[in-house]
Specification:
The structure is a single chain. This protein has 584 residues and is of the alpha+beta class. The chain folds into 2 domains: 385 residues, Ammonium transporter AmtB like domains (Ammonium transporter fold, Orthogonal Bundle), CATH 1.10.3430; 97 residues, 2-Layer Sandwich (Alpha-Beta Plaits). The strands form 4 sheets. A 4-stranded antiparallel beta sheet has the order 6-9-5-10, with helices on one face. Strand 3 and strand 4 form a beta hairpin.
Length: 584
Amino acid sequence: MAMEEITKLVEEAVTGEVFGVWFLIGAALVFFMQAGFAMVETGFTRAKNAGNIIMKNLMDFCIGTVVFVLLGFSLMMAEDYVLGIFGVPNLKILTDFGAFLKDGNAPSFVFNLVFCATAATIVSGSMAERTKFVSYCIYSGVISLFVYPVEAGWVWNSQGWLVQMGFHDFAGSAAIHSVGGITALIGAMMVGPRLGKYVKDKAGKVKKVNAIPGHSITLGALGCFILWFGWYGFNGAAAWDGTSLASIFVTTTIAPAVATCTTMLFTWFKNGKPDVSMCLNGSLAGLVAITAGCDAVDALGSAIIGAVAGILVVVVVELLDLKWHIDDPVGAVGVHFANGVWGTIAVGLFANPDAPAGLEGLLYTGSFKLLGVQTLGIAAILIWTAAMMALTFWAIKKTIGLRVTEEEELKGLDSTEHGLASAYADFVPAVESLDYGYEKAVAVSGDVPAAEAIPVKKMPAFESDAPKMTKIEIICRESRFEALKSALVDIGITGMTVSHVLGCGAQKGKPEYYRGVQVEANLLPKVQVDLVVSKVPVRSVIETAKRVLYTGHIGDGKIFVYDVENVVKVRTGEEGYAALQDVE
């Protein structure tokens, strides 16, 4: 054998080994995207359902693994394929594991499993906060067992009928995101909106749409960044050489960046301010849209795809909410369904023959062939998924039910479905779950070291003719609190209680927008300062507060004055005037 042939064989072997390692690393990155989906969905919903969201994202992968082993993988990637539609189950992974490994099926199994889990987890966001956990487990299992494997085999099994026609979906805009998105739409419609989302008149017509903001944009942003990071494995893991991998990384970066900028400008122009949560959705929309053609388009094509995605996600989210009254808390339909379809069709428009895939898009070659195949393919996938999942949801609804009771929804699914008082334990009132007892409390007895403050003294009971005591309650702007505090200390006030409160007066708040829905912000953040005076003249306190807080604008605050019957100092037992005085 010539040296050149030996060198070529060695290079091919090394390249194949490197590709295999990168393929599995990509699968691990896609698995990590489960954390991203969990954070996005948790952040965009209310805190009382956070544990439920986390549990669902955990279980759709675990349940998906079980059913994918039993049947899903065989339906999708079996060598015996029936009419290009589905594989013949052989259960080789369970019955002959050695042959399964020898045939090189293990990397394919792992990679397709994490893709399958992604399709299932998309659905939980649109049905969040009101769906039974057991019902979620069932329909998630159906997706991974049967629905996803069949249509994904059409797209990625070399014998699949769409593959034979030349359909191109490199990483799953159609096979994964459109499937999850159309299921999310059907599920949201069948489970119904969250309580309080839409207010209806006597005739049953929606007269008002309420915004229900998520409890943590921070978690939503963390999830978005995790997903973007994992998407490099999602799109790039199947790249066959360095050139195509680099091209995929370029397009996978440009599209979401352009989409996010477009969403920011679009919401800024439309609502007067850029919408944070919609911009996070915009990033994900760009990633979804570029997934099908990440290896087939150039930089310009990916930028155009991203720009359309950035507008499309806003339009669809607002149409669903404001016009069609379909409650999708996290924007799953706008991100995955709308942009999964758009990304699939965009391949037929923007595929550049000079890109690694070498496909002929309409705008480069004038040929409608690829566009026609892409349109047919996405239509077939949507029809299959919609039919199967509508039947699944209908069956669940007619048997065990899809939705929790109104009482359970109001309390939150963390407590009613999982027995969690809260997913955020530090915010649970201690009296609800902990008995601290009183054994370790040490009472001051009078016979104690000097460092233990003042000995207990027997004080006379409060007398009705004692000096008058007055409570003054001051509501003011947060920005003026420090000035008020300093001014009160200067006139002799030695104690006060300060609270952050919400309220409004003639100002009536200021309307803002959350995901295109007007939020009636009629309660504004204020500071409430409570103090009780006897020695310091009440009029001095009032005049001091007026002087410090006055700006002349609506919202300067209010001062309320009350008579106080008695004051008791717990430590010493002093009452009335004496209880208000500091120790000299």
